[in-house]
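Anyone up for a design puzzle?
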């Protein structure tokens, strides 16, 4: 089995390595783990997005880089940042769970309002799934929403709300 990515990907790998070599001194060590991103982590995230090393396939109109999906390039980015011990950017529930959901199912207004500030680390989200009597059995959830005067009114109770203490917003089922 030939695992060589080929010349196009060798060139891309070198570009990633060159970027890391030139900019890794700007990467905060806790950019991917902090509940609230530091100003340095937010700046690092901005630089990574601008260069296509995170939020790579999220459309530019929503604050991403706007590249076509390419699993090999994504793999190379991950490999090279890991090899160098450099943060690959912010990861949190808003970025990993909410943004893909909004891209797939959100209204245009929701996409415009929430995706870019979430990617940039300006908004930190927590998830509200678990409920008393339901735990993580999502089919047993009782929380509901109704529209009242053009707004959703949510009625229910959430427990074990990961990162709630640091969050600005909650997304829930």
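Challenge accepted. My sequence:
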């Amino acid at each position: 089995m030939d695992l060589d990515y080929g010349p196009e990907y060798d060139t891309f790998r070198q570009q990633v390595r060159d970027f890391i070599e030139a900019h890794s001194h700007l990467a905060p060590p806790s950019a991917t783990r902090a509940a609230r991103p530091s100003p340095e982590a937010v700046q690092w995230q901005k630089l990574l997005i601008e260069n296509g090393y995170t939020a790579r396939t999220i459309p530019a109109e929503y604050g991403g880089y706007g590249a076509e999906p390419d699993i090999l390039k994504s793999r190379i980015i991950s490999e090279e940042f890991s090899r160098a011990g450099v943060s690959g950017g912010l990861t949190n529930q808003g970025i990993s769970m909410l943004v893909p959901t909004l891209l797939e199912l959100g209204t245009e207004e929701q996409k415009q309002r929430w995706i870019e500030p979430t990617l940039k680390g300006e908004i930190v989200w927590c998830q509200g799934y678990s409920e008393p009597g339901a735990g993580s059995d999502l089919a047993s959830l009782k929380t509901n929403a109704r529209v009242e005067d053009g707004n959703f009114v949510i009625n229910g109770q959430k427990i074990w709300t990961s990162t709630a203490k640091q969050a600005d917003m909650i997304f829930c089922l």
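A detail worth pointing out: The longest strand covers residues 144-148.
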